[in-house]
Amino acid sequence: MEKKGDALVVVAIDFGTTYSGYAYSFRAEYEKDHTKVYSNSDWRSGDGLTTTKTPTVILFNEDKQFCKFGYEAEAKYNTLLEDEKAEGWRYFRRFKMRLFRGEEKILERTRVDKITKNLMIEDEQGKPMSALVVFAESIKYLKNEFLQNTQVQGLKFDPNNDIHWVLTVPAIWTDRAKQFMREAAKQAGIPDDMLTLAYEPEAAALYCKELTVQKKEGAESSSLSSFEPGQQFLVLDCGGGTVDVTAYQVQNDGDLRELQRPTGGPWGGTYVDNQYTTFLKELFGADIWSEYSKENPEDVLEIQRRFEAKKKSVNASADDQTTISFPASLFAKYQIAKKCSSFEESIKNQNLQKR
């Protein structure tokens, strides 16, 4: 039997585009209840909120050494910006999709940047760094968080023999991207023979098969039950970077049969964020926004945070109005560039001129 089958615990690292975390299941408990899964729900944001995941952001110092990850990286970098000491530091956010975009460029033959160990990616200030180091240090942080938290609970595991590590990846990723993640995990200290790469929607499908809420047509209440043999279901995994779509049918022996090849694209939450940035460029002017972003990076970071918070609170009601506040420095920049006394009056005049 392979070593994975003898592992005492399975730890799944959810390395997301916008947020990351981990969950784990003990072998002895899993044999009795497949849904007995634990997760770290103690990530603390700068405003005191406790969340089940932490932002996928990582900070390196001037010597390109790992410094902070998640909420701590956000807070540290923001302080560096406010103190005007961020020069030389490297701050990466939402970098996971660089692998997908790299593959797109290869297919389009626009440039040669194959996903290899030598791939370089740029930080928020446009400074390059080894992608393998950035991904590996992120995975290492999440791995160490699990080991440290379990030690606090009085548990101690040999990470090379007792733990079966699972790293999730989008279903639409290519073999190159998956191999890159495996190399990053290896560099993070995870033994290759104790590592499994799992498609994100497939992991969700397996959980749905074990436990799901089915609402029968015409019924007023939902019943909690497992899928029966022959039933088909679709998993729509809307993440921060990608949207993955998969469909399955439950077989008589309980296994899942894939009905269609996984499909999807780069249409996750970051796509919405990019559209929001495009809107701001149109509203304030591309040149003004570009200059403002360079001159006030800490304020741009705050704008991004506020939009992220609003996204989480938006509901399906078309009657609701969403209000987002902006730093006064942005309006001041606009008024100086446009030589006007009021942002509101300038926008009204522009609208009148378009009529």
TrEMBL record:
Record keyword RNA-binding present: no
Keywords: ATP-binding, Nucleotide-binding
Alphabetized InterPro entries for the sequence: ATPase_NBD, Hsp_70_fam
A GO molecular-function annotation: ATP-dependent protein folding chaperone
Family per record: Belongs to the heat shock protein 70 family.
Protein name, per record: Heat shock 70 kDa protein 12B
Organism name: Mytilus edulis (Blue mussel)
